[in-house]
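Researcher: Next sequence.
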Amino acid sequence: MSASGKFQQRLSLTDLTFIGLGSIFGSGWLFSASHVASLAGPAGIVSWLIGGAAVLLLGLVYCELGAALPHAGGPVRYPAYSHGALLGFLMGLMTLIAFSSLIAIEVVACRQYAAAWFPGLNAAGSEGPSALGWSLQFALLLLFFALNYAGVKTFARANNLISIFKFVVPLLVILVLLAFFKPENLAVHGFAPSGFSGVEAAVSAGGIIFAYLGLTPIVAVASEVRDPQRTIPIALILSVVLSTLIYLLLQIAFLGAVPADLLANGWSGISKMFSLPFHDIAAVLGIAWLAFLVVCDAVVSPSGTGNIYMNATPRVVYGWARGGTFFKLFTRIDARSGIPRPALWLSFALAVFWTLPFPSWSAMIEVVSAALVLSYAVAPVTAAALRRTAPDLQRPFKVSAFGVLGPASFVIASLIVFWSGWTTVSWLLGLQIALYVGYVGWIARSPARRPGLIADVRSSLWLIALYALLMLASWLGPFGGRASITHPWDLLMVSAIALLTYSWGARAGQRLQPAILTAGDE
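Model: Next structure:
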């Protein structure tokens, strides 16, 4: 183990595109279709378009940041570059929790689908793991760890092979189910039986945003990419556009293939009838071979995504440590493999931990989705601040019409968090505020660090204001709150909060330090 090692630029455009597609296209497609149908009915199609548009906007922002500053663990380091170490600490913690738990979510998804063949993998009467099921999850995590420990090119080769297979089955599902398509299913109970609130709820609670959230692994490995200024933007945009198209077709195929007699009481109970949507509908339609292939892919597809996040999470840990707000031990890179192995060990340990308390895929996605969106939402503010404080920074990819797209992406991200509901918003944002206060108190104990702390607090207060105002809006709103403010006033309220805090945050940035442009680890 050597602290003098460096990341090795071995990833091509093909490798990076497969990382993007593979991280986006994991367990989401296997579970979301029936959840979305239950919440929104056929209008779930609109929910997928909203999710795709939101992620594409955020992806364009990451294109600008990733091409200008292709640093390892970029999603964690960019907020520290633009607004100081305090914001970097908050985003580092949020992103580490989200990324490491995503590894666990994917192995949980593998186990749940594999239980269609081996019921003993589930605990009796629940979707939680039995001792055998948890052992399977642990074995998968060990496999991901071993593939990443060997080196980034070994990981990339394995991911490329997995990705080819994982896309064949969804495309086959689309083609087969469209042969059973019944147009009347889209109108029998109205296109939007739950109104626009159902469309909104499906974006967060239905698993749509969870299904899309795979952008940051591309940026996290930026310093290991050949020609990053060109490769990162192309890979990001391709990943989002292709995934959106596949997700839309899968949802349409599912909606149209549900037997008419199962819709007698509407769409609301469809997720219980089809808890493993594409396996169950293939079985109902008598297509045994397709049900078999779906289960095969259900083991391979989440495994591929889990492997990608086992690769990306150590880069997040490394980036957090490089920012000076986490243990320096995790900045060590093995000179031979180019892997931050201490960070990889921590990622593995956290992934194992996250498999312990949560019983099922659906129990985890709402919190993880909200946490990831919160970490993504800072990117537009970071990009806006850097445009003001570092106008001469070389930007090989520069987002056009950023004055519109930047605020728009921030508003959409804030709405997605709001749609997660009061239960999720209250404790997730409340915890962030408590951690902020605790971190400020801890740093304030050192007289030597107080001057820098004051500047960091000034640069980060906009985010705490956003958290507090979103909590208030959620408490007053219709998504698990008091419903004192209803549609469309809730949308207008959250949009106003987002626009005000975006403007504040863009003006609160700190000057970019010249040393950042010549960081020694890249």
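Model: The chain has a mean pLDDT of 83. The domain at 13-379 is CATH 1.20.1740.10 (Amino acid/polyamine transporter I).
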